[in-house]
From TrEMBL:
<feature type="domain" description="Endoribonuclease YicC-like N-terminal">
    <location>
        <begin position="2"/>
        <end position="156"/>
    </location>
</feature>
<dbReference type="InterPro" id="IPR013551">
    <property type="entry name" value="YicC-like_C"/>
</dbReference>
<dbReference type="Pfam" id="PF08340">
    <property type="entry name" value="YicC-like_C"/>
</dbReference>
<comment type="similarity">
    <text>Belongs to the YicC/YloC family.</text>
</comment>
<keyword id="KW-0255">Endonuclease</keyword>
<dbReference type="GO" id="GO:0004521">
    <property type="term" value="F:RNA endonuclease activity"/>
</dbReference>
<keyword id="KW-0540">Nuclease</keyword>
<keyword id="KW-0378">Hydrolase</keyword>
<dbReference type="GO" id="GO:0016787">
    <property type="term" value="F:hydrolase activity"/>
</dbReference>
<feature type="domain" description="Endoribonuclease YicC-like C-terminal">
    <location>
        <begin position="174"/>
        <end position="291"/>
    </location>
</feature>
<dbReference type="InterPro" id="IPR013527">
    <property type="entry name" value="YicC-like_N"/>
</dbReference>
<dbReference type="InterPro" id="IPR005229">
    <property type="entry name" value="YicC/YloC-like"/>
</dbReference>
<protein>
    <submittedName>
        <fullName>YicC family protein</fullName>
    </submittedName>
</protein>
<dbReference type="Pfam" id="PF03755">
    <property type="entry name" value="YicC-like_N"/>
</dbReference>
Amino acid sequence: MVRSMTGFGRGVTTTENFQLTIEIRAVNHRFLEVSSKFPKEWMEAEVLTKKLLAKLFSRGKLDVSVHVKKNEQLAQTVKVNWPLVEAYKEARTKLSSRVPVTPEWSMQELISLDDALIVEVVEIPREEILRAVEEAVTQAAVNLIDMRVREGQELYEVVIGFKMELEQQIAIIHSVSQQAVEKYRDKLLQRMQDISSIEELEGRVITEVALFAERADIAEELDRLASHFSQLDETMGDEQSIGRKLDFLLQEIHREINTIGSKNQSSVASIAVIHAKSVLEKMREQIQNIE
């Protein structure tokens, strides 16, 4: 199955203590790379997220956004850090002995003391966090996969269209290659009309034509191209990650077309080779988007 490497998915989970929203944005990447930023106390959940995504995706850069909205009724308490406040008081007394300081403390002054007040929030159970993360990440990943599959179907149709166009150019090359040896033989006969001996003429022509036919023979390249096209069809229907394999096949197809171009003795075939390379380049651009 062809899947694109770009897409977006969102998952939302609500628990007793918070609402968690996970958003995953995916773009092209040679390998799988997951980047995420969880609350510092949720490090275990971040590890779990990367493990879950590694099981579902093979390639692509995944950016995971995490939004936590805690329940307003989640119990909170504010405690006074008395040892620190006493230390501030002692320091203030020392300062007042040397600089003019009012003896009274304002409430604003007390509240503004660093770490003088400690806000304690009831800790959310670890199991609740992990369960919520697994549910939200899975939901976001499924939505992302759905989008990648839809885009993958469009890529499939584009690539198959290019493949058919490429095969048409190869068919043109094949047809004119059959005529190349005959044309070369006729040209040789015209050039050798001044040779008096018919036996010598026939021998020279046969030898030259045989050498030319060997140099211009592209039967092996055409056979390999047919094999590569067959593998391309099979790969496009594979259920696994296929992007790298498709890229490799296109490299092999490009190699065979280059070889055919170097052996070519026809202007028609030259045009077909150029067109085939152009189509192949378009195919490679599209395949870079396939997982």
